[in-house]
């Protein structure tokens, strides 16, 4: 009995379960039968060179792109059959699509709060909390387009977390900012993970790969390695994730 409870618990802890997930565009296979699990509260780094298939895989996991084959369960919902439920339980932030530059900080929070189904009261209290936490009091009525990139990214992450999702998917969230601002961004990720949110993040910065609990490395649509940064370094007999990445992703 104890064993079954324990096995059950281990099973429950996988908040993302991916089985042979595949995406073909015509005759080109962008994601080639990938399988892996992500545990609740984990910071999972999803790495790969440009064009490896990361964004395509994320789009399937957040329920906006139908897989050609395979399946995935995200926050207990099937990405093929229950895509709308998946969307309600996750947050998403990408470098390319985040906030509206021509809306103010406050307007962006109100807008996305509405999209995520928060009540006016919830939006009001969340936005007060968020503006305070990010020290945005001075600029809450400024257009987001006028903010430095690092501020925009922190705000975009907080907005993706407005509805307290179980998992947040971050596609290159820190592109183009300096190491200190990236470090501050990662402190936000650690805090969210500590509070139980699962973080699924892609990055091209190998120092960030070192901060992840586990890392997968995708090469030409396939996952070629998956483990903790320390285990990967041991496996490839190197000192840094940068060297692991170069050995694997760059051939
Ligand atoms: N809608 C599409 N139609 C055809 N090919 C596509 C489509 N979307 C992506 N691809 C191709 O699939 C491959 C994987 O693209 P994807 O954007 O998933 O890679 P990525 O690992 O996220 O790369 P990057 O780090 O540059 O964002 C690329 O060769 C891309 O050109």
UniProtKB/TrEMBL annotation:
Membrane topology of this protein: Multi-pass membrane protein
This protein's record includes keyword Ligase: no
One GO location term (cellular component): membrane
Entry-linked Gene3D superfamilies: P-loop containing nucleotide triphosphate hydrolases
Keyword Transport on entry: yes
Cited PROSITE patterns: ABC_TRANSPORTER_2
Places the protein is found: Membrane
Keywords recorded for this protein, A-Z: ATP-binding, Membrane, Nucleotide-binding, Transmembrane, Transmembrane helix, Transport
InterPro entries: AAA+_ATPase (IPR003593), ABC_transporter-like_ATP-bd (IPR003439), P-loop_NTPase (IPR027417)
Signal sequence range: none
One GO MF term: ATP hydrolysis activity
Domain ABC transporter: 16-245
Protein name (Swiss-Prot/TrEMBL): ABC transporter ATPase
């Amino acid at each position: 009995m104890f064993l079954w409870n324990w096995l059950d618990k281990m099973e429950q802890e996988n908040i993302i379960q991916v089985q042979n997930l595949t995406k073909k565009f015509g005759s080109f296979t962008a994601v080639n039968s990938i399988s892996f699990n992500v545990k609740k509260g984990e910071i999972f780094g999803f790495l790969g060179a440009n064009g490896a298939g990361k964004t395509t895989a994320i789009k399937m996991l957040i329920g906006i792109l139908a897989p050609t084959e395979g399946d995935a369960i995200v926050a207990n919902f099937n990405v093929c059959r229950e895509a709308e439920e998946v969307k309600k339980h996750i947050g998403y932030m990408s470098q390319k699509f985040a906030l509206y530059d021509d809306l103010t900080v406050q307007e962006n929070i109100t807008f996305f709060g509405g999209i995520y189904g928060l009540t006016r009261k919830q939006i009001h209290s969340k936005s007060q909390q968020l503006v305070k936490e990010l020290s945005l009091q001075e600029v809450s009525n400024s257009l987001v387009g006028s903010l430095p990139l690092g501020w925009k990214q922190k705000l975009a992450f907080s907005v993706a977390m407005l509805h307290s999702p179980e998992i947040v998917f971050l596609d290159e969230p820190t592109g183009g900012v300096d190491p200190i601002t990236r470090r501050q961004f990662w402190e936000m990720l650690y805090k969210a993970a500590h509070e139980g949110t699962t973080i699924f993040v892609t990055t091209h910065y190998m120092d960030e790969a070192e901060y992840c609990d586990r890392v997968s490395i995708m090469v030409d649509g396939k996952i070629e390695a998956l483990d903790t940064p320390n285990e990967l370094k041991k496996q490839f007999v190197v000192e840094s994730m940068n060297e692991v990445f170069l050995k694997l992703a760059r051939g």
